[in-house]
Amino acid sequence: MPASSRTRTPGSPRAERPGRRRRWALRIIALLRERYPQIRLPLVHRDPFQLLVATILSAQCTDAMVNRVTPVLFERYPTPQTLAAARLRDVEKIIKPTGFFRQKTRAIINMSCSLVERFSRRVPLTMEELLTLEGVGRKTANVILSAKRLEPWGRGEDRADGLGIVVDTHVRRVSQRLGLAATDDPEKIEEQLMSIIPRQEWDSFSLRLIYFGREVCTAKRPKCLTCPLKRLCPSAPFLGNPPWMRRRRRAGRVP
């Protein structure tokens, strides 16, 4: 068969036409929407402030653990004012189970001080402003901006300045396996996903990919044989460990 007539599977290292990748992405979105018709953030919260604190605490920690810690934290420090005035050691005792508790304590207290001093005790809802807060990177900011469109407290808020796609460890892994991203860099993955995922799907797409990564496309033993996306997934024949991801892992190792 001539090389020009061969069908290339999306996800291979070679470049493909953007139109084809977008059509591929739409098929994946449709199947994910069918599997997860209703989506909600896994971090328990009542308002943007609580979600912001919980998201910072979730770094290198499971959502289940964060959800066990935050009720105690928010009962004692329910507002930016109260958390800004908290003593470091008192907060450290509460959030210690989340790991890296000293750094996280400083981050959420300093973030709360910024909300009080610069934002009238309200969480800003633009990417530019969120990134000025202690402990907030693009992933955390995208969680807040996406939640604004999904959660009851965000109704009536039409602004989504700087909204992107949340790229956590699940989104990074699954998007690579599905051939939707061709890099290990989270910011580049976000750019690649934003170029093929319709804007109106950005907030829900990342959540569905996170659900899918936890339930089916797991890190160590992905359920490729029973995966509902296996006919669309170029990694399925490799049981979730395709050669292009192996090459990236080797290239990223430091001698």
UniProtKB/TrEMBL annotation:
Catalytic function, reaction form: 2'-deoxyribonucleotide-(2'-deoxyribose 5'-phosphate)-2'-deoxyribonucleotide-DNA = a 3'-end 2'-deoxyribonucleotide-(2,3-dehydro-2,3-deoxyribose 5'-phosphate)-DNA + a 5'-end 5'-phospho-2'-deoxyribonucleoside-DNA + H(+)
What are the UniProt keywords, alphabetically?
4Fe-4S, DNA damage, DNA repair, DNA-binding, Endonuclease, Glycosidase, Hydrolase, Iron, Iron-sulfur, Lyase, Metal-binding, Nuclease
- Spell out the SUPFAM superfamilies in the cross-references: DNA-glycosylase
Which function does this protein serve? Answer: DNA repair enzyme that has both DNA N-glycosylase activity and AP-lyase activity. The DNA N-glycosylase activity releases various damaged pyrimidines from DNA by cleaving the N-glycosidic bond, leaving an AP (apurinic/apyrimidinic) site. The AP-lyase activity cleaves the phosphodiester bond 3' to the AP site by a beta-elimination, leaving a 3'-terminal unsaturated sugar and a product with a terminal 5'-phosphate.
Biological process terms from the Gene Ontology for this record are: base-excision repair, AP site formation
- Matching Gene3D superfamilies, A to Z? Helix-hairpin-Helix base-excision DNA repair enzymes (C-terminal) (1.10.1670.10), Hypothetical protein, domain 2 (1.10.340.30)
Q: Does the keyword Amino-acid biosynthesis apply?
A: no
Q: Which residues form a coiled coil?
A: none
Tell me which domain of life the UniProt entry assigns to the organism this sequence originates from: Bacteria
According to the UniProt entry, its GO molecular function terms are: 4 iron, 4 sulfur cluster binding; class I DNA-(apurinic or apyrimidinic site) endonuclease activity; DNA binding; DNA N-glycosylase activity; metal ion binding
Could you tell me the EC number(s) of this protein? 4.2.99.18
Q: What class of enzyme is it?
A: lyase
**Name of the featured protein:** Endonuclease III
Describe cofactor binding as the record notes it. Binds 1 [4Fe-4S] cluster.
UniProt: [4Fe-4S] cluster binding residues: 217, 224, 227, 233
Show where the HhH-GPD domain sits. 57-215
**Family membership noted in the UniProt record:** Belongs to the Nth/MutY family.
What cofactor does its activity depend on?
[4Fe-4S] cluster
Show the SMART domains listed in the entry. Answer: ENDO3c, FES
Question: HAMAP family, per this entry?
Answer: Nth (MF_00942)
